[in-house]
Amino acid sequence: MQVERGRVFREAWIAGVTTHYPGDPKPGYVASWENTPDWERNAATAVYDQIRSFIDASDGMTTKLSRSQKGRFVALCWLGQMYKHFNDPKPGYVADWDDLPRWQQETDADIFERIERDI
Fold it and tell me: This protein's superkingdom (predicted)?
């Protein structure tokens, strides 16, 4: 079900932000699923599905990937969603992996590993 897949992604994001973000995160970073905009819910579901497809296509061997490789995959999938939903996204929304803050890199890796555990 779409809501559940997207909600898993969102919950993993919030858990990662809560763990890795330095200081107090912006309210939008930790907003509940119910308070997340529709475009972001759709993007979360799409990226969840991409991660799941990658894990399935790899016969679960994604467990051998490094955290950085897992996080990069999440970030790249999210980039595609930013371009899908915004004609001219803010530069921070489409930053390359090396330009993302460490907290975001760690959160993206956490998201991948959460989905990996769940399936």
Answer: Bacteria
pTM of the full structure? 0.94
Residue 35 and residue 91: Cα distance in Å, rounded?
24
Q: Is 89 helix (H, G, I), strand (E, B) or coil?
A: coil
* Structural domain total, the chain: 1
The rounded distance, in Å, linking the Cα atoms of 76 and 104 is 13
Distance CA 105, CA 76 (A): 11
Q: Which burial class, exposed, middle or buried, applies to 29 when counting CB atoms under 10 A from its CB (0-12, 13-18, 19+)?
A: middle
Please give the share of the chain, as a percent, with pLDDT higher than 70: 97
| Cα–Cα dist 93/77, whole Å | 12
Structural domain harbouring 52: 2-118
Of 1, 2, 9, the C-alpha closest to 118 is 9
Q: What is the mean pLDDT of each run of 10 residues along the chain (119 residues)?
A: 84 98 95 95 97 97 98 98 95 94 98 95
